[in-house]
Amino acid sequence: MSRVADTIAARKAAGSGALIGYLPVGYPDLQTSIEAAVALAENGVDVLELGLPYSDPVMDGVVIQRATQAALAGGFRLQHGFEAVAAITARVSTPVLLMTYWNPVLQYGVDRFADDLVAAGGAGLITPDLVPDEGAAWLATSDRTDLDRVFLAAPSSTDERLRQSVELSRGFVYAVSTMGITGARSDVDSAARSLVSRLRAVGATSTCVGLGISTPEQVHEVLGYADGAIVGSLLVKALADGGVDAVAAAASHLATGTGRFAPSAAK
User: Fold this and answer.
1) Contacts of 13 (CB under 8 A, 6+ apart)
2) What's this model's pTM, rounded to 2 decimal places?
3) CATH number, domain at 146?
């Protein structure tokens, strides 16, 4: 059973697809990051992706790097991630995934990390720098705890690597739409459509596309061939520029791309 997969499937059955929103925990401070995540859930975001700030965020673009560095400078500690998940899940039913580089999980202890995430009400992990064939400890622990495990797939991945990611992911497979780092782009890379097709060919039933999505039109385009659209940098920038109200407005605007919200609702 997967709350994330069930949520995505329900959105597909309703004729749209899922909108997944990313924000870092602890930016600009812990309480504001909690309020911002709740605002996403209340304004059309179907699955929350909370990033744990890390000192070496090799996959993150400038907007997210600045936010996570500010969170670390402000005193973020790993325990704050669990506190945030618990506070958010106490207020909304939206599934919450943590996105984290693998080293902090190892340092904390894989089993301890999983147990604390379950206790907080979290749904699972997205692990951008962990490949399935190096994730034996996480595979075993996530099986024990029924946590989702979302692995990444890139256009450069071999068919065998894609098959492995599909077979071992739970919740969805994260299709990286373009090579490189995160950040809003004017055009979502056309490689995304080809990658999703390749993932379908090796058995994927739940694939979400991320990296570069920043408009309702791009959300709509992605949901035409994928099961979910993941937005990060745009939401982080909205939080940086205008606080929680701006994040709520940005989420509501993006959600018009799912077709579940009237275009006139976007401001």
Assistant:
1) none
2) 0.92
3) 3.20.20.70
- Per-residue pLDDT tens for 250-259? 999 999 999 8
Which residue's structure tokens are 């109200």? 245
**CB within 8 Å of 116: residues ≥ 6 apart:** 82
Half-sphere exposure of 233 (CA within 13 A, CB side): 20
Q: Which of 49, 116, 189, 221 is catalytic?
A: 49
Phi-psi region of 203 (alpha: psi -120 to 50; beta: other; left: phi over 0): left
Which distant-in-sequence residues (6+ apart) come within 8 Å of 190 by Cβ?
none
Question: Which has more pLDDT, 263 or 231?
Answer: 231
What average pLDDT score do residues 72-95 get?
A: 97
Cis ω on the peptide bond leading into residue 57 (within 30° of 0)? no
Residue 60 among the catalytic residues: yes
Which single residue is written with the structure tokens 């699972």?
A: 124
Write down the catalytic residue from 35, 60, 116, 148.
Answer: 60
pLDDT (tens digit per residue) in 67-82: 999 999 999 999 999 9
Question: Which domain covers residue 19, as residue numbers?
Answer: 3-265
Count up the domains in the chain and report the number. 1
